[in-house]
Amino acid sequence: MDEQDILNSEECRKRVMAIYDAMDVLNGKWKVSIMSCLCFSPKRYSDLLKKVLGISGKVLSRELKDLEMNQLIKRTEGSGYPKTVIYELTEYGETLKEVIDVIANWGLQHREQIIRSSRKKVADLQE
User: Which tens digit of pLDDT belongs to each residue from 83-102?
Assistant: First the structure.
């Protein structure tokens, strides 16, 4: 292995480890969706439960705690009655907005690609 191969291998290893670290924090079906909702504005727990389709209350609570522990979101309790809790992205969490936008845009493009491909298959079958 020459010097360039060693440098490339080391750089690849570092990138894979960085991706592993990022995915460890953002893993699961719900965290990126929750953060995506919070990119628009702070939300109450009940608002997140409505916006993140399919998530249960128990899972939402667990995911919010994980995101808070990783300093990506902030939980603020109101002083009134009934008690309100607001969740919002932290400054650190906002550093992921661009990543979330890229994932969302890719998801839209992917959905369109699959729909076009399915329509083409149906058209080909009808010929």
Answer: 889 999 999 999 999 999 99
Q: What is the DSSP letter of 79?
A: S
DSSP 95-110: TTHHHHHHHHHHHHHH
**What's the rounded Cα separation, in Å, for the pair 48 and 38?**
8
* Cβ partners under 8 Å of residue 83, min gap 6: 77
* 33-88 per-position pLDDT tens digit: 999 999 999 999 999 999 999 999 999 999 999 999 999 999 999 888 888 899 99
Question: For residues 76 and 85, is the Cβ–Cβ distance under 8 A?
Answer: yes
Query: If you search the block for the tokens 């997140």, which residue do you land on?
Result: 48
